[in-house]
Amino acid sequence: MAHNIQISIQPELLAQVDQTVKKVGKSRSAFIAEALRAYLNLLKTRWLEKRHIQGYRKGPAVPEEFDIWPKEQAWPDP
């Protein structure tokens, strides 16, 4: 079930949202919820990428770790 909330938003940003929702045929609520989901997914991706980078800095790949993959790749003939 959705919850009603109250937020403050700058007039210029609200005008952009209103113009966009008219173009895409969504309600403000649906558009903002979709934008929040997209931003949360972006943050999660960035967080996971940061963790991967930190992990490889702590224990970098050994030279042979990825040697199998070139043999597994299939490239089309030009």
Please tell me about this protein's structure.
With 78 residues, the protein is mainly α. It has a domain at 26-58. The chain has three helices and no strands. The protein is elongated. 0% of the residues are buried.
Features:
single chain, 78 residues, mainly alpha
Binned strand content: under 5%
Can you summarize the main beta sheet?
Answer: none
Amount of helix: 55-70%
Low-confidence stretches: none
Distance between the termini: 54 Å
> What structural category do the secondary elements indicate?
mainly alpha
How many β-strands, per DSSP?
A: 0
Q: What order do the helices and strands follow?
A: HHH
Short précis:
The chain is mainly α and 78 residues long.
Topology diagram in text:
Layout: H1 11-24, H2 28-58, H3 69-72
